[in-house]
């Protein structure tokens, strides 16, 4: 795993397309139990090099019912975005994760992650990649259908403040899904 993480940290595959340069941000340990497949680092995480070190991370930790020490315990959580480097800004927010990253690295990572038994799929990029034709037409439908993907996968929306309107429109997410998510996470902390 250490060798693989070092290889990833030296990856330059997308260098010509990354306005802010390469800076892969992820965290994984051979004993990780839960994989969190996110989208890509934002500008803050690109600077700090700490996964989910922003408002989205604060909300995600609240959903999971864990504090920062639990969240950054790599023996519990592997933090693996679809794209490991900050893709830069587009017209309507951050650009999508680089499409080269997951096919190049995810399978190799999962080969060394033998104790993972729950995979949280955050956002539509992760859901489409991992659920393939099991994903519904929209993220809302996929997340609403979350029980169909358990026990292996649990799809979630992105916790970004940009999605606050979605959270207001979909109160079932807090009422129905979050309690299930917290119960799942609790099982690994006893
Ligand atoms: S996004 Fe992934 S594939 Fe692209 S340079 Fe960064 S680590 Fe390499």
TrEMBL record:
<feature type="domain" description="Uracil-DNA glycosylase-like">
    <location>
        <begin position="25"/>
        <end position="182"/>
    </location>
</feature>
<dbReference type="InterPro" id="IPR005122">
    <property type="entry name" value="Uracil-DNA_glycosylase-like"/>
</dbReference>
<dbReference type="InterPro" id="IPR047124">
    <property type="entry name" value="HI_0220.2"/>
</dbReference>
<dbReference type="Pfam" id="PF03167">
    <property type="entry name" value="UDG"/>
</dbReference>
<protein>
    <submittedName>
        <fullName>Uracil-DNA glycosylase family protein</fullName>
    </submittedName>
</protein>
<dbReference type="InterPro" id="IPR036895">
    <property type="entry name" value="Uracil-DNA_glycosylase-like_sf"/>
</dbReference>
